[in-house]
Design goal:
Number of domains of chain A: 1
Distance between the termini of chain B: 7 Å
Number of helices of chain B: 4
Structural class of chain A: mainly alpha
Largest sheet of chain A: none
Largest sheet of chain B: none
Radius of gyration of chain A: 20 Å
Structural class of chain B: mainly alpha
Number of strands of chain B: 0
Helix content of chain B: over 70%
Order of helices and strands of chain A: HHHHHHH
Order of helices and strands of chain B: HHHH
Shape of chain B: elongated
Helix content of chain A: over 70%
Strand content of chain A: under 5%
Oligomer: heterodimer
Number of strands of chain A: 0
Amino acid sequence: MNQVAEHQVPATDTMTKVQPFVPLWGLAVAGAVIVALILTIASNSVFGLDFFHVFAGAIWISTDLFMGFIIGPIMSRLDIPARMVFAKKLMTTMMVAMPTVVICTLTAGWQLARVDNFFTAPYAPQHGWILAALIVVALLSILAYTFLEPANIVVLMELRKPEPNGLLIGRMMKRFLYTAGILGVLQLSIIVIMVRLATW
Amino acid sequence: MVNTTQPYAGDTKSSPIIASIIGTVISCILAAGIIIAHIPGPAPMWGSVMWVCIAAVLTIATVILILRKKPFARKLFFKVAKWVFLYILVLSGMGEYVIVFDGTRGEPLVVMTIILLLFLVNIPMLWGFSVARHERVPN
């Protein structure tokens, strides 16, 4: 019974307060960024596409590496209540930031490859590198959509309950951080591919 | 009857629903990959169509498995799935916009649109199920 009590962590006042699932100001910022991205694609601006792709890609890679190799080990050493408070703040922000960053990186990257004629010349020397990038992105997508984000949502939903299940949150956070670490390693290969393409 | 004497770490059993959705996602990526790998030339469409058909069959199987799952927190499932649907709608919409904007027409456009639609159905089901499966509901 004590074991149960240990994992049924009572919610703090800030946890039980009914709040929006994600920060509303964050949604407004994300919406503005998506509109800017649509306009950039419509104008085919090389600067704009490059900016979106590099900026969003840098945030995506840095976040994955940071989560997997720095935040992960720190969180695993925290006790469950502290981990839950930290996870709630972290996950709500990640829930808005990461999808926006992913949309910007992939969409701008695709369009940039078109504008830079990586797709127009058949059997161009860069074609293999572009394909390698697409394969890594496919692996990233499978891992992110099937393991990382579901774990993120489970943690968020659990933290909204009056008595969150610490054991489940701990299990899901572990999955989230391990997956983020694997994604970070895959992202390193993307850096190699992108540097090769940029310096062709 | 829910057992409350043991600490509950969520549903730890492997689920055919998750396996089916992962299979769908992989099939969709393979279908899109065949078309993308052949750009700017025409891709042999039979490969993509085959993977899309496999993804469609797996999607139907997933829907049937979810409908038959009992006990299951359906309310929570739909609560999560509808918001994820909105997010994937934006993501798929951006994808479709770029594909159409770049002048993709004909069969590749149809296949790519079906792939995006399959994503639109499967990802909300996956995320919704991932949350709802851990909810303890009475039999």
